[in-house]
Write a structure and sequence with these properties.
The chain contains eleven helices and 16 strands. It is an alpha/beta fold. It has a twelve-stranded mixed sheet with strand order 11-12-13-10-9-8-7-6-5-14-15-16. Helix 2 packs parallel to helix 3. The longest helix is centred in the first third of the chain and has 13 residues. The two termini are 30 Å apart. The relative contact order is 0.18. The N terminus is likely disordered. It binds S-adenosylmethionine and iron/sulfur cluster.
Length: 368
């Protein structure tokens, strides 16, 4: 089945997609075939089952990471963003479609004023696997034990360097690595385990620290996840030469610490996971969407803070569910809209292939 051309993704003031002037509201997705609408699971036209929702709750952030947001990046107007009840309604409907994991993300989710209430409410509707990704800078202000008791299962934080100057220059903030070290201790004291730390590895910026990240994983007994730089930065400065590939990462770490691949990987996992060959604490995860794409096993659905259903991180197609939410749509209407949207999920991201275009939204406006 062919689909009409996607909704317009001309870049709006925030760098986020906006309908082209004069074209009116974005059209809904074309109906998926009726057999797909009857299926208990959410799936796409390539036979992939969708189990994992990335729910972005804000496009705001206290950092301006060089691989994500420019210093003068402009946010979406507040009125465009969904409210707590709308995020909850979408999460609830997604659970009814077989979604098992919900990751709260952003922007920086700790900038969302009702984060505690949202976690309580998502816990109360029984999300089987509820997680959050945060840069960790503001975690001190939050009741982590209450989050855990409310039903948050996992916390992932970001730390792109162990050197104070490099952290400051990557995040364009005054925060140093000790903030995340403190946040790791707080999260562990609140009962979170394992704790994952993400680092985006960029050539000439932090690639000399690969083995140090392994030391850090061992010292703090955490899962250190090293991510290939993806073309989702607002300055569109990505190029293949800035990507440090998985093989190079593994080689650099192995020169200091032997790595043993973990055999128990979830087939939908985005990361290749390793323990240390000497049995030391901590783990390494390598996330290699550029050099080893995992699109064939992708089980993800993304909903942005302004209510766009994005079938793929690299979608140029996104579907606006906000009118359905705001015009009295029933749960069934929301379910059908999500089913139809996900039917349009592209087979792969196409990075490195002729015709690849970076999507207008940055990672911060999509939800990583
Ligand atoms: N603000 C939170 C944080 O940074 O952890 C959550 C949102 S952030 C968009 C989610 C994840 O996306 C972070 O781990 C970040 O490092 C990653 N990310 C952002 N831009 C990226 C890029 N261009 N390539 C690879 N990962 C990126
Ligand atoms: Fe903010 Fe996270 Fe983007 Fe960094 S990666 S600018 S912390 S949203």
């Amino acid at each position: 089945m062919t689909h009409p051309l996607p909704i317009i993704t001309a870049s709006g003031p925030s760098g986020a997609p906006a309908p082209a002037p004069g074209l009116g509201p974005a059209p809904p997705p074309p109906p998926a075939p009726s057999h797909s609408r009857r299926d208990a699971n959410l799936h796409d036209s390539h036979g992939r089952i969708i189990r994992d929702l990335r729910l972005s709750i804000t496009d705001r952030c206290n950092y301006r990471c060089i691989y994500c947001m420019d210093p003068d990046f402009r946010y979406m107007p507040k009125r465009e963003l969904l409210d707590l009840d709308e995020y909850l309604a979408l999460a609830r409907v997604c659970l009814g479609l077989g979604i098992e994991k919900v990751r709260i993300t952003g922007g920086e989710p700790t900038m969302y004023p009702q984060l505690n209430e949202l976690i309580d409410a998502l816990g109360a509707i029984g999300v089987p696997d509820l997680a959050i990704t945060t840069n960790g800078a503001l975690l001190e202000r939050f009741p982590l034990r209450r989050w855990r008791e409310a039903g948050l299962h996992r916390i992932t934080m970001s730390l792109d360097s162990l050197r104070p100057d490099t952290v400051r220059s990557i995040t364009r903030s005054k925060t140093g690595p000790e903030t995340v070290v403190h946040a790791i201790d707080m999260a562990r004291a609140a009962g979170f385990d394992p704790i994952k730390i993400n680092a985006v590895v960029m050539r000439g910026i932090n690639d000399s620290e690969l083995a140090d990240f392994a030391d850090f994983a061992r010292e703090h007994d955490i899962d250190m996840r090293l991510i290939e730089f993806m073309p989702l930065d607002s300055s569109h400065a990505w190029d293949r030469g800035k990507v440090v590939g998985a093989d190079e990462m593994i080689e650099a770490i192995s020169a200091r610490h032997g790595l043993s691949p973990l055999g128990d990987e979830d087939p939908h996992s985005t990361s290749m996971n390793f323990t240390f060959a000497d049995g030391g604490p901590g783990r390494i995860g390598i996330i290699a969407p550029v050099t080893r794409p995992f699109c064939g096993a992708c089980s993800r659905l993304r909903i942005t803070a302004d209510g766009k259903v994005r079938p793929c991180l690299f979608s140029h197609v996104e579907w606006d569910i906000r009118p359905v939410l705001r015009n009295g749509g029933t749960d069934e209407d929301l379910r059908d809209f999500i089913r139809d949207s996900m039917w349009t999920k592209q087979a792969g991201h196409g990075i490195g292939q002729a015709g690849f275009h970076q999507p207008p939204r940055t990672m911060s406006a999509i939800g990583g």
